[in-house]
Structures are given as structure tokens and as C-alpha cells.
Amino acid sequence: MITRITASWQLILADLALILFLVTLAALASANEKEKNERSVALTTETSVPVQALYRPVKGIIPFSDWLDDQPNDPRAQLTIYAIYTAANQDEIWQQVRAMASDATKRDMATKVVMTRGESGAIYAKIAFDRSAQPDNNREQQMAPTPQ
Prior knowledge:
single chain, alpha+beta, 3 helices, rod-shaped
């Protein structure tokens, strides 16, 4: 004898509701993921610029002035000198940064200096296409350390 299982319409409706819920949840998760990716791509393109060259003064490397001479002089590019100093070596780091910025200014390069206090002293420079579109009218501005 064959037994027949009857399903009520409530069970079928509950199954369909569950399927609809899962499909909707998957679509929302996918939409949120796409939105996050679009936001991260927008942030990445706004904040990152291609770096042309990187200089880090270590033993055995050519002097900074020679390195600058080897770089192409592109008017769209800007030299950025990053310096991390401690309380003990602030004056020494500042003198090195001033010398580097002076070398760049003599070569008519747009230059920006960024100094921050840190746990150990370090200096590095990069040439990148991150120069602002506005002309720099204060190129000969006197560089003086800011009081701490």
C-alpha cells in the first residue's frame, strides 16, 4: 500500500518565504560589498599618487644632490622630504632637511617638507606627481623651525 503525504499550503508558503528572505539577504550583502568597494576605490584614487623616485640616505648610497641631478625635472612633480625626529636629534635632523630642501630649491624643484616627532630619527624623500595645481608664489620663503 502506498501512503500519500499531504503538505499543507502553510508549509509551502513558509518555504517560499524562507527562500525569499535568503535571496533578499544575499542581494543586500552583495550591494553593500559593491558600495564598500566603490568607496575604497574612490579613496585610493584620491589619496595615492604615482611615485617617480624614492631616496633614503643610508651608508654607501650616492649623495642627495647627485641623486637629484639624476632625476628628470618634470614641472608636474614635487619633491617631498619626510623627516622623523626625536627630542635628542631634532636640530641635527632639521639641518639635514634644510640642506636637502636648499639643494632642491637650487634646482628649481617644487619642494614640501613634512616633519613629525617619533621614536627614532629618519629622513627620506620622494618625487611624485602630487603637486597642487596652484602656482607657488612663495618659493623663496624663509624656512624656520616652529617652536615646540
